[in-house]
Amino acid sequence: MRKTTLFMMAALSVAPLMAENLQQIADNLPVLPRVEGNKLVMPAVPGAEVRLLGADYEQIIRPDGSVATPLTDTEVKVSFVLNKDGQEAVSRDYSVTVPGGITTAAGSNPKPQVVPALLNWSGGTDSYKLGTEVRVAGGTDSFVSELGSMLGCKVQKVPAGEAADITFYTSTDSILGQEGYTLDIAEGKGIVISANTPTGQFWGSRTVLQLLQQGAGSVPCGQALDIPRYQVRSFLLDVGRLPIPLSYVKEVVKYMAWYKMNDLHIHLNDNFIFHEEHSKAGNDPFEKSYSAFRLESDMVGANGVRLTADDLSYTKDEFRQFIAFAREHGVNIVPEFDTPAHALSFTRVRPDLIYKSTNKRGCEMLDASNPETLKFVESVFDEYLLPQNGQPPVFEGCGVMHVGADEFHGNAEHYRAYADGLLKMVQSKGYTPRIWGSLNTKKGNTPVHAKGVQMNLWNSGWARAWDSIKQGFDVINTNDGALYIVPFAPYYRMDARHQWVHDHWKVNVIWDETLPSGHPQLLGAAFGIWNDMIDRRYVGYSAYDIWHMFSNSVDVLAGKMWGSDSTATSYADHKALLKSVGKVPGINPQFLWADGATCSCKPESLPCKLGQPAMGPDYELTMELMLKEQPVPGEEQVLLKSPEGVFCAALADGTVGFRRADSMEFSFNCKLPVGEKVTLKLVGKPGSTHLFINGQPAGPCTLTRFHRNPEGLINTFVLPLDVLGSSFKGEIYSLEVKHNTPAGPTVDPNLSPRKK
């Protein structure tokens, strides 16, 4: 979509234009466009050349002006370019109704409500209900699993061509493009999902599951046509500053896919940006500021510093598998390496390439003026973009590679030359480059490559929408004021303004500029979670604690990225619809158990395999135990263990505490007595974890990294229940765990960092 625009010229008249401004004429065309047959009839303007710029549904009104027939009458927004005497004006959007191929009969089933909404629906009568045994022809194994667990029925996959309740069919209908699909639901036929691609079939399966979940296994008969309005429907997750396990990111992928969001932008490296706070404390930020590069890398500096983060990282094989996993769920992974700023992990490996600057962020900026810098950065990119050691590229199949390049506080010409080199380098390796918009701030004479380059328009001070379009970039609305979330900060809190976003936000409005909805260079939009509040501003939160900030934003934005930006329902009605659509199948990011569920054990020996899934808040753990040996300094004694973390009778310093899967460690600042039977009670709540020993509160829970002050600390802990007593030197007499589902968000979403 929106990659190539062919122009269609209206009939020209020799009559002169009226003495109106060309832009005024473009926005008030004397003859409006309309559809006749399979063609768009262009508006004629005396004395001017009129060209079709684009349509928001270009699968219906194509770049050459030909028209495909939708299922039912469909409103499409089109825009035009007017040329006269060397002057050019781009028109506003004009609405054109494209006649559908079907007229829905009175009394037929109304359009079913799903998120995002269906584009076209022609209702039949009656409904189709699945039985206790369901036959599926085609589709994925994951769909079969989701269907069975959702409805509690037996699902059998059958060969293509056999009679089935749900059939996946490969179409060749051009109107569907790469992501569109049709549904045909009828008694005697079942549910037929047709699409040109596996991705289209997958999106159709999301709609069918939503319908089945609402109807308890029953769906209304009728036909649907559903195609996306924008090709990029993106979410950005900053894992560079907050360590986030890859297992959590997979839950993000599944949740995005449920709402047909198709682009996960992963910000893989970054650092604490408030370096002045270290300087004021008498510390060198180059040494003290937190930074991380989340991928396994072979890069090691001459100083012995590894590029890969020490606390949490993803192996190359894990990331390859993750990319394939996401692709199966219709989601493209867009990895980002951010340079020349936000690059403290890079400058620590190559301190000889630090940019000469007095800016407070100087320690994190690579020398954009030095040709050796681009060679160094290219060597890092090559580890992932090219085959290595007989293995396929780590980023194979991504298609798009983000080169970062935001907030460089240095010379504009240096920046432009460096950005130009980055973009050409990535493109030469077969990937589409994506970059943060910066060229309005970094004005200069050095050309920056734009053809085939995608640009996130994130702040109007750094890059203006129309300027970026004219420079030749394909743009993505990433308006920071409307679309950014910085958890637990006093700024960038889109998650507190969901109703405003639902009621007012539009993909084609970027700050104070409005682009035509169907501009061929407007690819879509992205919202993001940035974890600025790390290091000295860190309040202890984990990915668990920000799930609701992400999940409550996706549904609001997805509909406008997939479909119409006009709000047909109130925000309250939208949220009510979400409840009827039901939960996303196959995920449990909050590690919830059934209300009132319990787990108990009286181990005969240690270690003891419990084999239970981890348990999220609310829970209460009670253990009777005796520590028999004084902990050895530096050696841990683990009571409970699973991939989600460990609960320790003794951390390395001998105190009772826990460490989460994100590598963050918390101590209760107390030690167990040796040779004395005690009762431990661990109470986990959203946002807080408390320990009691023999009924008395243990010491205050502090973070062992960055700072230890418990004031304002968020210390949510997901309870590990896989192995009991894996390295405990003593006796465990009993264990009992009780669980209740929390009533609200994990923590107060308006909580700001504690004051320093």
Provide an overview of this structure.
The two termini are 49 Å apart. Helices cover 20% and strands 27% of the residues. Mean pLDDT is 93; it is low at 3-19 and 747-756. The chain is built from 15 helices and 39 strands. The protein is globular. Helix 2 runs parallel beside helix 3 (198-214) and helix 4 runs parallel beside helix 7 (316-328). 50% of the residues are buried. With 756 residues, the chain is an alpha/beta fold. The strands form eight sheets. It has an eight-stranded parallel barrel with strand order 14-15-18-19-20-21-22-26, surrounded by four helices. It has a seven-stranded mixed beta sheet with strand order 7-13-11-12-10-8-9, covered by helices on one side. A seven-stranded antiparallel beta sheet has the order 28-38-30-31-32-33-37, with no helix packed on it. The protein has four domains: 22-98; 120-226, Chitobiase, domain 2; 232-581, Alpha-Beta Barrel (TIM Barrel), CATH 3.20.20.80; 598-739, Sandwich (Jelly Rolls).
How helix-rich are the residues, as a percent range?
Answer: 10-25%
Tell me, rounded to a whole number, the average pLDDT: 93
Number of strands: 39
If helices are DSSP runs of H or I spanning 4 or more residues, what is the number of helices? 15
CATH class of the largest domain: Alpha Beta
From the alpha carbons, calculate the radius of gyration and give it in angstroms: 29 Å
CATH superfamily of the largest domain: Glycosidases
